[in-house]
Amino acid sequence: MQAQPPAFRFLKAKTRHSTVPFELQRNLIIVQVMLNGRGPYNFLLDTGVNISLITEPRLRDELGLRRKERFRVMGAGNEGGLEAYQVDSVRVTLGRVEAPILSFLVLSDDVLDLSGYVGMPMHGIIGSDLFQSFVLRIHPQSGELELHDPLHYKTPRSKRWSSIPLILEGGKAYLTTTVALEDTLKLPLKFVLDTGAGHALSLEVKSDPRLTVPAKRLRSQLGRGLNGFINGYIGRVANLQLGKYQVTSLLTSFPDADQVRSDVPRNGNIGFELLKRFELIIDYPHNRLMLQPNSLFRDPFEHDMCGIELLAAGPNFRRYFILRVEPSSPADQAGLQAQDEILSVNLLPTAGLTLTQMSRLFHSADGRQLLLIIRRPDGELVTTAVRLKRQI
């Protein structure tokens, strides 16, 4: 059987590589694309998705896209399936590369609210089609994405690079590596390579009876999937091996068993909070992941030390509202409440901060005190101090 041609290609013949800038917001890779010559639109690059998504339903009318087959989409979360429909023959341009006729699923409702989560207008997700078309080299610190022709790509020779085999199943990439859950229990586990996950590591305890949630853990809302909020626990594993590099005291999500769905047997996923600590070469054409540590490699893995979940809103996504407050957390003790709007942090107006910068403040240092000015839903202004505390 003849191999299907790649979905993306260089705009000019004989081009062998191209560089595209990206923004790294909340551990997610955001690129600007043109759709049918219009845009630019902001899309997340996600190895964890096998078909690209348009998450902003209004784009269908804006671009004049015709509905085709209708689907019921099942994903992570605790709610029912989501309706989506297919559109095809969308021309996608990313810098100097394009997909002349790419298919998308258009969600009937923007349930992911990527814009509110990331803190900038978001329109969709580019999945495996791009990764199957090129060798991608990702520079997390400089915000550059290199796209290389697989036939002419030259493997870097530095001994600092480590190569890990990838297995492609159902349009997604999987790798097997060793995780030490504790000092005496080491297991070889299979993970999805998931650049669209903002966490470091997720373990699905139902996938193996030897996997258990650690005794030291924190009940938390882990994120949002296609089918609603994902609940579970935050804990740590002793270490994880990635090629010849070992990462220690790794912050790990343990989603509730009934909220995880997968077509391919696996034990969890590796997200970009871990991957951003490396220069990365994601090479689907040659079935490998290559990495070498960057200056973030030794940064500790920290969970939110305040106990709030934020949502960005407003015309420029620079208004920050508290979605929920963890019971007994520093935020709870300081009197913060759901629906409060944070106006300033340490006398810095939040309108001048990105959501990523806000998140970093609340992850910053155990024992640090933050002075907040908040506005209640009834308009009352309140000043309070939160002392951050490492909870896990």
TrEMBL record:
Annotated PDZ domain residues: 307-377
One of the GO biological process terms: proteolysis
Cross-referenced InterPro entries: PDZ (IPR001478), PDZ_6 (IPR041489), PDZ_sf (IPR036034), Peptidase_A2_cat (IPR001995), Peptidase_aspartic_dom_sf (IPR021109)
Pfam families, sorted: Asp_protease_2 (PF13650), PDZ_6 (PF17820)
Molecular function via GO: aspartic-type endopeptidase activity
UniProt keyword terms in alphabetical order: Hydrolase
Keyword Translocase: no
Peptidase A2 domain ranges (all copies): 41-130
Signal peptide region: none
Name the record gives this protein: PDZ domain-containing protein
Species for this entry: Hymenobacter crusticola
